[in-house]
């Protein structure tokens, strides 16, 4: 009898422990955590937008709080001071210098790259200039609009100049703070070309302001244009960072299914993106060259190294950070264990 009672006591104890464990797991899943995301309403934000609006973040217990910034410098400052948790931004000299000063921002996933033959970020010429500017050496003497110096905007142009044996002494940079205003600058004669982004190139072509030029794969192949970044504090919360990445890649995959590898649910995806990006007409989304967003999430590490080397050669970055620590693949690798590699529809 004592043996039976002892067995029952042990059995009840195990059941109670098991029940507690399930309750704790359920509580963790049901807990909603807010993640503050820097946001600029460009098509490159599609992964975050779709992960949010299709409910992938909600399934991971995440609520997104969007925070808009007037400039990339303000956004980087907010990331460095943990005012925002996640950002999708360009790789510039300031980012490397922030890391060198001890600010532990992590580059965790691809945030936008050019698809070979369909570059969404490239040099576009004023309508009619293509007859004169046929090769890289023909860029000499042009006034080229860029959004900022010391960033990928300048880097792309410089690489094109190098292909023609030119330097920045052979052209004039016209700094225009916003990409939409570059169309105005070219239209009114203030610039001859622009380091422009889609769908504004398509818009400029349709309005007889711009014409397409060389594909960027000819002058800066394999470039990482923008990256998904975690702030110093956010990167310390491994569980939340992992859950964010799983949802983000699901959003990126929905985007790829609709535009890159097929047209799955394309009308539905376009309805969402025309509401939450500055591309507000479905026809434009179907005509434009889409941003490349890696459905497996990997940062193009060689592209980051190329950027670093260029910024150092120009004296914009004095010390080389350890890119293997700067780029943190662990969140993407964890997400791929959960989701598996991407398969096109």
Automatic annotation (TrEMBL):
Its main location: periplasm. Keywords: Signal. InterPro entries: Solute-binding_3/MltF_N (IPR001638), SsuA/THI5 (IPR015168). It is found in: Periplasm. One of its GO terms (cellular component) is periplasmic space. Residues 34-263 form the Solute-binding protein family 3/N-terminal domain. It holds the Pfam family NMT1. Belongs to the bacterial solute-binding protein SsuA/TauA family. This is ABC-type transporter, periplasmic subunit family 3.
